[in-house]
Amino acid sequence: MPAVSDYSPLDRAYSEAVPYSAKPRKLEDPIIPINMLGQTVPEQDPSGGNIIQNVQAAIRRGAGNIQLVMTTSPEAAIGGRFKAYGHEVREELKEILLANDVKMSGIELPTAISNLSGFNRQQGAFSEETRERDIAEVRDAIRFAADVAGGGGVDILSWEFDRNFSDAKWNRDKSGKMIFEPAGGEKGVEKEVVQIVDTVTGRVSAIRKGEEVFLPFNPKTFKAADESKWNDQIAWDTDGLPKVEKWTWKDFEQVAKNTKDDEGNPLSPTDLFIRLQQNGQISTTLGYAKQYAGEALAIQEQMNRMKTNGIADDDPQMKQAQARFEGLRQTATGQLQQARQLQEQKGRLKDVEDYALVRATESYAELGIAAMHETHNRKLQGNPIHVGPELGWPTFFGSHPTEFVQLIKDSRKVMATQLEKDGLRPDDAMEEAKKHIKGTFDTSHLGMFFQHFRPHETDYDKRLKDFNKWFLDQVDFLAKENAKDDIIGGVQLVNSMSGAHGHLPPGQGIFPVVEAAKILAKKGNYSGYMTSEGHEEERIQAGRILLDTWKAFDPNIMSSVYGGGLVGGGASIRWRDVHQGYFGRPYSANFVVGDYSPSQELRLWSEVPLE
Fold it and tell me: pTM (2 decimals)?
C-alpha cells in the first residue's frame, strides 16, 4: 500500500485505512492501450485559451495523443485558421509535442467546410469558387500537419448533399419497410424533396415528392425505354385534345425501374421526371413557335397580294399588316429560342447525387495526391499524411457507413487513375491512394440515427436495445472493411444521451461506444488513434473528456497504476479516490490554495508551510 508519506497531513486519505488486496489484479495487455486514447483540442475555446495553451492543457491532463479541431470559419478574415500561425508558433507546438512525447494524430477542419463537392448552403447552389476555397484550406491543413505533427490525418465533415431516407437502399428491412423514418414519419416522405442541379450554373431546384404532376401519358402503361417514341403514347380525348393523367412520385419510381438511358444505364426517377417535364415544355414552346410562324407567313402572303393589287407601303392597311407580321415573327422567334434553350438545358440538368459525388471524389483525389507529395517531400513515410471524410449526420450523404465507405473507395479509384496517367503502375497507384485517403469514424454521428429509428415506439428500452444492435452491426461492417482495405484513419469517441448531436465522453451516454472501439481494434485490425471528443461536461469538471474515457475503457486502470503493485504493492484504490482526489474534487477543498493562502514568509517552528 502507499506509504503515509505519499499523503500530506491535510489529505483526507492520510488517516483513512486503505483497503488491501492480497492478490493484485493481473495486468493483461488491453485490446486498446490507454496511450491510444487521446482527446480533441480546440483551436480556440470559449475561455479565451489560444492554440498553444489548449495543447499544453491537454498534455498536462495526460493526453498521449491529440486531434486538433480548427474552429475558425474559412470566411473569417482574422482570428485563426492555419494562415494565422507563423513559423515560431508552429515550431513551438512541434517542440511541445516532442518534449512531452505526445502525438498530434490528426486535424479536423471547421464545420463551415462540410463537403468537398462545392455545395454552398447559403447560396443553395454548387459553386466552383466555394470548392476551390475549401480545397485551398485543406491544402493549408496538410502543410500544417507536416510542419507541426510530422504527418497524420486531415478530416472534413461529410455533408456532401441532402439525402432522403426513403431513397436510400440501406434503409429497407427484409420486408421492404423503412428502418429509419424522416421527420414526420410516413407523411414526412411526401415532404421530402428531390434535388436537381443545373451543371452549368450550379443552381439547385427541388420538387416535393408529395406534389402531383399532370402529363399526357398513362403512368400504368407508359413505356420510357425509347424516348423517340414517347409522343406515340400520348392519349387523346374524344374532343381532340390530349388526355392528361396525374403522376405521383411513386409512378416515376415504378416506370424508371424497367428503363435505361441512351447509354444503357438504369434511368433514375429523377432523370425520368426531368426528361418528361422538359420534353413537355419543349413541345409546348415549339408548338407556339409553329403556330405564330404560320400566322406570320399567312399575313406575309396577304401583304404580297396587297402589293400586287397596288396598295402602297405607306397605306394604313399595309402598315397594320406589317406591324402584325413583325409581332408574330418576333413571338415565333422567341418561342423557338426558348425551345432550343430548354433542349440544351435538358442535357445540363442532373440528379444532385450523381453530380455531387463526382465533384467530391475528384476533390478528395486531388487532395490525396497533395498529401502524398507532402509526405514524400518531407520524408514522412513513417507517418504519412492522409485526408478523408468524417462520418456525417443522418440527413446528409456520407453519414451512413455504406456511403462513408463508398466515398472513400470511389475517391481512391479517381486518385489511382490519375497517378496511373502520371506513370505509376496500377498496384503502386492504388497503394498510394490507400495510404493518403482515409476516413474518420465519429461514433456520436452514427448514434444520431437513433432519432429516426422507430421514433413513435412506446417501449423506449426495447427501441434502444434494438438500435444499439444495429449500431454495432454497422461498426462490424466498418471493421471488416477496414481489415480488408484500411479505410479508417481516425476514430472520434463520443457519446450522447439521445439521438441529438452530443459530445459526452465514452461511458456517459446510451450508445455502446467502448464496445464499438474494441470491435474496430480486434476485428478491424485498427491500430490508429482514438480521440475522445466528449467535451460537453468539461464545464462541470475539467478533465472529464479524457479521464472518463480512460475509466470507460478500464474501470480498474487506476488500481493497476496506483494499487496493483506499481506504487504500493497491492492496495486497491478506487477510481474516485484518484479521479476526484488528485484531479480535482467536485466538493469544496479542505485546504486553502493560491492567492487565498497565507504568505510563505509565515512559518511554524516545525517548518511545515501554511496552506
Answer: 0.82
